[in-house]
Amino acid sequence: MGYHQYQQCIDACLRCAALCNHCASSCLQEADVKSMSTCIQLDMECAALCYAAAQLMSLGSGQARAICKLCAEICERCGAECSRHKDMQHCQECAAACKQCAEICRTMA
Amino acid sequence: MGYHQYQQCIDACLRCAALCNHCASSCLQEADVKSMSTCIQLDMECAALCYAAAQLMSLGSGQARAICKLCAEICERCGAECSRHKDMQHCQECAAACKQCAEICRTMA
Amino acid sequence: MGYHQYQQCIDACLRCAALCNHCASSCLQEADVKSMSTCIQLDMECAALCYAAAQLMSLGSGQARAICKLCAEICERCGAECSRHKDMQHCQECAAACKQCAEICRTMA
Amino acid sequence: MGYHQYQQCIDACLRCAALCNHCASSCLQEADVKSMSTCIQLDMECAALCYAAAQLMSLGSGQARAICKLCAEICERCGAECSRHKDMQHCQECAAACKQCAEICRTMA
Q1: Which residue, among C61, C40, C55, C73, has the nearest Cα to B63 in the 3D structure?
Q2: What are φ and ψ of residue B59, in 5° steps?
Q3: How confident is the model at residue A109 (pLDDT cuts 50, 70, 90)?
Q4: Can you tell which superkingdom this protein's organism belongs to (chains A, B, C, D) (predicted)?
Q5: Would you say the C-alpha torsion C75, C81, C84, C87 has a positive or negative sign?
Q6: Nearest to C34 among A33, A41, A44 (CB)
Q7: What is the CA radius of gyration of chain A?
Q8: Counting Cβ atoms within 10 Å, is residue C92 exposed (0-12), middle (13-18) or buried (19+)?
């Protein structure tokens, strides 16, 4: 397995990582930051795992499936938290990316 | 400036990082690895800088433009080296991604 | 130049990245998260740049000095912000790591 | 659990990541690069996982233990490969760092 077999999952992970960073940074500019603290924490964890998953897949690592399993778990938690913040575009975009990434990572794992 | 203003450049950087990892890993499986050593070295450096650039842009950092300048430089060097290996699909794909990323990063910087 | 010539700077960057992550996560648990939002934002940017600098130095990259210059700048800003939060151990630890990293990166650059 | 409880493991992971990068880059300069190709591949995978583990630990993530388990596995494989190259200082340093990191990550997991 290498880049081309994993490409859809790599793309989903990288897009999710970028939208998690964007969401974290945008949450910090909201009026009520306190209510976004769980979201920001999960965004940071999710971005780290999504990028590591994309790296191992693009390197064709034998551990790619195992990290996709961990990645799916954090994406599900981050997506669930983000989806609660219905008025915030950055959270809704991040939730959609997390859910898509979780599904593709589950299939991969 | 945030994710949406930078999106094209973020996408180019993340795609380039993934194709650099793929190229490095694929080069290691070529018959004449020795002749690929510069390519592998530049792939590793380019992947690191492309990802850092994508991170700072998606975080809306004030240093996004400065790192895009460094990123453009390594993409140009990596793309030039990869483009020399005309028989290898992974190098040609990586060269194309590096050149596209270099152009967009130059515009951004 | 490679790992051994850069070792002190690599160690300072990696320590700073870890303490920035710790500071960001700890700030999110403070009672007044709003007042920590700039600190969290700079922690995320600083962690990203410190790690990229450590990567390029440990790879012996020709761009190591240039990224150390960027890294010194964000470390100075992050350290200045963290040092304002005198009652918080995580901020004081992060401020000390940022200042040390900034100094070593300046020397390197 | 946060940075201070994990500190020994974070330090081992970050040191291992840096020495893997150094080993990969140094292997590429050896006369017989072909014989180092497995080593370089594992160095790249190990560096990616070690850094992700350090990130999740320093963020106090609930998935820190799970990624330490994956990290221990790749460190064991990378350390075993590096230890075979007895004449190369970079491989011996990397092997020692991998073995130490694997042990601490096993304890953590």
Answers
A1: C73
A2: -85, -5
A3: confident
A4: Bacteria
A5: negative
A6: A33
A7: 13
A8: middle
**Residue A36 has what DSSP assignment?**
G
In 10 A of CB D32, how many CB atoms? 9
**Mean pLDDT, all residues of chain C:** 97
pLDDT, residue B2, reads 77
Residue B33 has pLDDT above 80, yes or no: yes
The identity of residue A65, as a single letter, is R
Out of B49, B55, B61, closest to residue C63 by CB: B49
Classify burial at B107, counting beta carbons within 10 Å of its beta carbon; exposed 0-12, middle 13-18, buried 19 or more. exposed
Lookup: tokens for B5: 């203003």
CB count, 10 Å around CB of B29?
13
Q: Which of D62, A42, A34 is nearest to C30 (CA)?
A: A34
**Which residues on chain B are in Cβ contact (under 8 Å) with C73?**
63
CA angle (D98 as vertex; D92, D100 as ends), nearest 5: 105
- Between A28, A32, A34, which is nearest C40 by CB? A28
**Sign of torsion over alpha carbons D100, D103, D104, D106:** positive
Query: For residues A96 and A80, is the Cβ–Cβ distance under 8 A?
Result: no
Q: Residue A4: CB partners within 8 Å, gap ≥ 6?
A: none
- The CATH architecture to which B3-108 belongs is Up-down Bundle (1.20)
ipTM of the modeled complex: 0.96
Nearby residues of B35 by Cβ (< 8 Å), 6 or more positions away: none
Beta carbons of D97 and D13 less than 8 angstroms apart: no
Cα of D27 to nearest chain A Cα, Å:
17
Residues of A in Cβ contact (< 8 Å) with C28: 37, 40-41
Q: How far apart are CA D88 and CA D91, in angstroms?
A: 5
Percentage of chain D exceeding pLDDT 70: 99
Whether B56 and B107 have beta carbons less than 8 Å apart is answered as no
Alpha helices (H) in chain A, listed in sequence order: 3-27, 37-58, 64-83, 89-108
Tokens 């575009």 correspond to A89
Phi-psi domain of C60 (left: phi exceeds 0; alpha: psi -120 through 50; beta: other) = left
CB A5 within 8 A of CB A63: no
Asked if the Cβ–Cβ distance from D70 to A63 is below 8 Å, we say yes
SS3 D42: helix
